[in-house]
Design brief:
Distance between the termini: 67 Å
Number of helices: 3
Helix content: 55-70%
Structural class: mainly alpha
Largest sheet: none
Order of helices and strands: HHH
Shape: elongated
Length: 85
Amino acid sequence: MTADALRAQGFEVEISIDATARPAVEVEADRIDRQAERVAALEQKAERRSDRAEQAWKAEHRAVEALPPGGEPIKIGHHSEQRHR
């Protein structure tokens, strides 16, 4: 136990337990606050992922634009030839 470890190190430890229940209004208010914080965090996460998805889409679009008309030809003898066929 933590108190025993502290006492073994020479610290004076006093343990006090408050068994009174918090008012339901306070508990509910804390729950609502935590939920609002989770919502905000998830909205930020969604925005970051949306930005990354947009960047990935733009990169993919640039790569497709760089291909010749009709697409990339199969390169005979290249390691990718069988997969492309």
